[in-house]
Amino acid sequence: xxxxxxxxxxxxxxxxxxxxxxxxxxxxxxxxxxxxxxxxxxxxxxxxxxxxxxxxxxxxxxxxxxxxxxxxxxxxxxxxxxxxxxxxxxxxxxxxxxxxxxxxxxxxxxxxxxxxxxxxxxxxxxxxxxxxxxxxxxxxxxxxxxxxxxxxxxxxxxxxxxxxxxxxxxxxxxxxxxxxxxxxxxxxxxxxxxxxxxxxxxxxxxxxxxxxxxxxxxxxxxxxxxxxxxxxxxxxxxxxxxxxxxxxxxxxxxxxxxxxxxxxxxxxxxxxxxxxxxxxxxxxxxxxxxxxxxxxxxxxxxxxxxxxxxxxxxxxxxxxxxxxxxxxxxxxxxxxxx
Amino acid sequence: xxxxxxxxxxxxxxxxxxxxxxxxxxxxxxxxxxxxxxxxxxxxxxxxxxxxxxxxxxxxxxxxxxxxxxxxxxxxxxxxxxxxxxxxxxxxxxxxxxxxxxxxxxxxxxxxxxxxxxxxxxxxxxxxxxxxxxxxxxxxxxxxxxxxxxxxxxxxxxxxxxxxxxxxxxxxxxxxxxxxxxxxxxxxxxxxxxxxxxxxxxxxxxxxxxxxxxxxxxxxxxxxxxxxxxxxxxxxxxxxxxxxxxxxxxxxxxxxxxxxxxxxxxxxxxxxxxxxxxxxxxxxxxxxxxxxxxxxxxxxxxxxxxxxxxxxxxxxxxxxxxxxxxxxxxxxxxxxxx
Lengths: 338, 338
Fold this sequence. Notes:
The structure is a homodimer.
Chain A: E1 3-7, E2 12-16, H1 31-37, E3 57-60, E4 71-77, E5 91-94, E6 97-101, E7 105-110, H2 124-142, E8 149-156, E9 168-174, H3 183-191, H4 195-205, E10 210-213, E11 217-220, E12 231-235, H5 247-267, E13 273-278, E14 293-298, H6 305-310, E15 313-315, H7 319-335
Antiparallel strand pairs in A: 1-2, 1-6, 3-4, 4-7, 5-6, 7-9, 8-9, 8-13, 10-11, 11-12, 12-14, 13-14
Helix pairs in contact in A: 2-5, 5-7
């Protein structure tokens, strides 16, 4: 059973796989695995459904049994999940150490049946389908009272942490709330207002970091970005929870992602990237002050020892210089029509 | 002037270079730079002293002027420093945003004149010389009252964040104390005892994560390691500050690093790695509860979106399985004699 352990020095939780010792040569970065990854067998491809655990959700383009060809998008459990949804949440003590069972889920959304069709090449309909499926899975997972946080994300490219090429997103459901976005509830407690709402108000006054203003969403570079060319897609109206998106918002978000993912790929010379959804905890009582947002992080640098040691990210690109470049790239993508 | 900005959501500081826009193709990961890095010109090589800023400290093996050939080890300012030691520490406000000038220093220790001699290939004398120079620079930097934290570290290999091959360490002196190791003072405040002293006491009782016991230092895998095969070299006796090491401790640490760096390279199939020195703040009043330690982090995985988003590291190797492997590799390195 996987385990979460509390790091007493860093005051964070770490997910530790207890029962298998991955040898150094088993890691995706090992040379032989790098070579294997670019070729050969892909468990996410159409026709290989029997090599993955049975699907949890599916969108089909042709009638057929579950786990057979004819699908457009599949949601499957991660075969190497760090979490298992069994039993109750129990915190254990071992002397001064704290840990808990890795209660939770880890799902993979295979975004297309085609091996080489990437996120930034999807048509609007496919991105819209993906967003709807992510919201659907979010709502399903939030129904389990043991789940406290749902983390949706994507790794694209080896230096963004991807181990498989075939385009996919992931959903991890956790039994605890990380303190990573603790600034939001803390700001609310101190000021009685939402941090991101206040932030947008300030950004509108002098829009040097603003990339785009839509009806429901804006795109901006944050004031203190950890990563070069990091940007956020933020709901304009206060909205705590990703799972509460309306159909109109989902449609606009899909359209923005359709253009903006092309802009990031073209404008930044085809970078590896992550997207991550930051949202309010679930099953945790009221969560005022949280405001969900979609973060896009190009991975142009590898985190060095400074980040490992001090947590201080060294960002060589000021967001006031990144925003105009991303704005221009977005305009180009929009003008390219399609 | 570089700048530190406060990330209101993550509640951490970010170093942002304000005045230059690194274009996507300027980053070390860009294909053309990867190719360039493996060949061509190296500013750290003997004979190229004029391509670096003037040296701050040096160990010579032949008499000669500063910044001329005949040296064994050089300390130079980082040409692309994120910090500058000028003026006073001033915190600025811009509406809700906080920032401060990037007051501090960023030094590079070129560990050898030879381009292809790596840390794990150094003889004992060279490692001893390096440790003594690190302690010396630490003590010099700590004399400036504007400096609050001194971060010593090394990036070895591209996936550990290195952009130059030639073996070097780095020293960043910061105007503020990061909260990354806040668990140590917090534990002291809650328990009136040192976290690491208590931790070692517990580890000795059931030494499943212990790798080595020396006279002054132990080597262990921590209970909640963020990285696979992460290990710590910890002073056995309570010692807050890296700069307070005695000559006897420096000698033992050098000898341990001599063997253990070989063990990590051989035992883990030549991984990229970081070392980082965790230590107490300086010029910050009493710092009880801090206990310095030398952390060695093989970089076998690239941090994925889960770490970026939630701060929860996913470690596929339990420290109870990593420790025996590292123990065996260390024994082999020690038995190889040399």
